[in-house]
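Q: How would the structure tokens look for this protein?
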Amino acid sequence: MKRKHITRVAALALAGLMTSMALVGCGGSSSSSSPKADKTKDGNASKGKVYYLNFKPEADGAWQNLAKKYTEETGIEVNVETAAEGTYEETLTAAMDKSEAPTLFQVNGPVGLANWKDYCYDLKDSDIYSQLTSKDYALSEGDAVYGISYVIESYGIIYNKTILQKYFDSDFSTVKKIEDVNSFDALKTVADEIQANAAALGVKGAFTSAGMDSTSDWRFKTHLANLPIYFEYKEDGISSTDAIKGTYLDNYKKIFDLYVADSTCAGTDLANKNMTDAETEFSKGEAVFFQNGSWEYTPLTTAGLTDADLGMLPIYVGAGDEANQGLCTGSENFWCVNKNANKDDIAATLNFLNWCVTSEAGTTALAEDMGFVIPFKNAKEATNVFVKADAEYTANGKTPVSWNFTTMPSETWKNGVGTALTQYAAGTGSWDDVVTAFVDGWKTEYAAANAE
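A: Here is the predicted structure in token form.
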């Protein structure tokens, strides 16, 4: 059966994003601790329970604490299970086959929703849907609302301010201040000079290892791959395609080559490098740059880094108006409620979600413990330094790079690109193989996903 075309009301357009950010910053939080009964279901929430399959390993501890607090407050059982990094889809598939399946799960956007729409409860009359600052943050088809974004995030190139300042102050630096790192050419100059003078700076490399195992490869086959897609869509005036042209794949190559050349390890080692390796290298001061996102704030500060140590640059690839480019900002995190759960569990799950985004305890945990910017009316301002960096870029007139990787045709496509990148970095494959996986693979996978 052909999958129906899923649309978001407006795919995180800049105007909608800025409006939501403004409301997030000024919204108050409810002082009520009792969850409001949701009007959308006739189940008895007090007899139900919540089973949340969480996508974010870095937020597991905070979710466990929040679930415990809700249970203590209401008596309603909340079980949070967290999928291992890079395994969410397969974990969700297995969990949905259980006799007691998750009542709450997530999809990453329109393509992910196409796989799970038949499991999604219609949220259009729910209290949590009414709490959104903009309906742009919902996944909809016609009048039905199947998913609600719960966090707006940013990613770019995280940098260690302390070590970078040491570079700026050195005799060998060409670039002397962070404001001048505003293009690919400038970034490459800085990275090359850091790499050439690694011993003097006390680092192993400019960039952390670009690990290509399953815990880390999504940073390059998905998040980095967003950049050539973004610039192609922008140039062609489109928001999705059945056949990517690869107009900006040379730019993709330039930035990936930089990550591999100016690194803590050789390209031949990347197949076995993982996320823990990169986090450790960065938190120990062995590297200056680390491509990652706002979700990385808690792991890095827990490891001992402070706000004074941390900043984030846009990912420059030598395309577009680089001087006015902001961070990559958007969402691939949409809550969905399992419509096949029993009525009491659905009611309990809806109440739990509404409590998370309206109560003092919930909004505090989301903002402070998880570092989230949430698109809901009662949101608190996040303390996350990377979130603040994104707001500063936007306030200074920089244009955020939208998240277009949600239009990637399949996980199979991503894995094909990831394999080609790994082989290219190791010297056992060519860049032409990456192009083939990117362009030909896109057409093939899109056709397969949309076949009759």
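The first helix runs from residue 14 to 26.

Residues 7-152+331-377 form a domain with the D-Maltodextrin-Binding Protein; domain 2 fold (CATH 3.40.190.10).

Upvote if useful.
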